[in-house]
Amino acid sequence: MSDPFSTPQAELPRDRWGRPLITPPEGGEPIAYTRCTTFVGCLEDTYHLGLWQLRMAVLGMSRRKDLILAASAIDDPTDQYQKRKLNDIAKAAKDAAAGDAAANTGTAIHSLTERIDKGEGLGEFIPEEYLPDLKAYADITNGLEFLGIEGFCVRDDLRVGGTYDRILGFTEEFLDVYHTKHGDVLRYPGRDAEGRLVPNAGDPVQPGDAVIGDVKTGHVDLGAGKIAMQLGVYANSEDYDHSLGARSPLPGNPSKDWGVVIHLPAGTGTARLLWFDIRAGFEAASSLAVGVHAWRKRKDLTHAFASAQSNVKPGPTLVEQIAAAKSPDALRVLFSMNERTWTPGLTALAKARIAELAGGN
Fold this sequence. Notes:
This is PD-(D/E)XK nuclease superfamily protein. There is one protein chain. This protein is of the alpha+beta class and 361 residues long. 42% of the residues lie in helices and 16% in strands. Strands 3, 4, 5, 8, 9, 10, 11 and 12 form an eight-stranded mixed beta sheet that branches.
């Protein structure tokens, strides 16, 4: 088993799409596995996330006139190059609205919690407003044992690989503190007759029990299904040492029924521990997610039974017509015919063509 606290000598190899390259169990050339977040993400409801991204992009455009100008120069949003340019403009607009500020803050706090769990110092330059977050994290995890931190694992039958945040071990110290504080022993959740989750109604948690853990600094409610699937896949995977291409059991043999999310909303100075039903999550990942990915790969759902081709060639684009205009009057005619779709970028091109025509005289 690889040491979960050691720094690998070499980066995990990946292909050009960022997918991990994994040596098959039987050996041979490495093959690309799907990242766990991508694999389970096919079942995530991204409606509200999409609306948030749209709002941030619109707000960012209002703050960056240069981005408005850059967008106005796009005359064919279906062109591959111009689509990439529009993507860059949209991302810059979202960033301008501080749409990525929360993500950056969350990533930084996440990294600092890792240093806490490894017993490393935090340094001298942590902004004071984030110290309460880190204090809350240290308090809520006090007494837990960290059996694994940022370990890479694989599930070979699904061809999925990913990095779990933590493998947490319950200790007598942690359980005693819980009992003193809450007046009862800590139990796993249970289910009622209708299958609904009932808190603290299952078997008592025992010293030495281990669970897959995840640190979350953002919202968890809307993404609960994805989190349950992700932790479920991790708990049912094997530790993977990419330098040897070797697999071994996960440290602590974590539960395949329940996982724990350490919820640390950035900037609030609060933390809480949440149980997640990862058995249900893994069942969804290994059936529903597999089915969705298989469905998306289907190429046999349509067949053309008739076709026709016109010999009429498409006319020149507005950009091409502006470049070929013989006079300022021709440019004015172009404008009058296309006024509704005319952009500031086309105006700039027309002015440049007028200057070019004047110079030619």
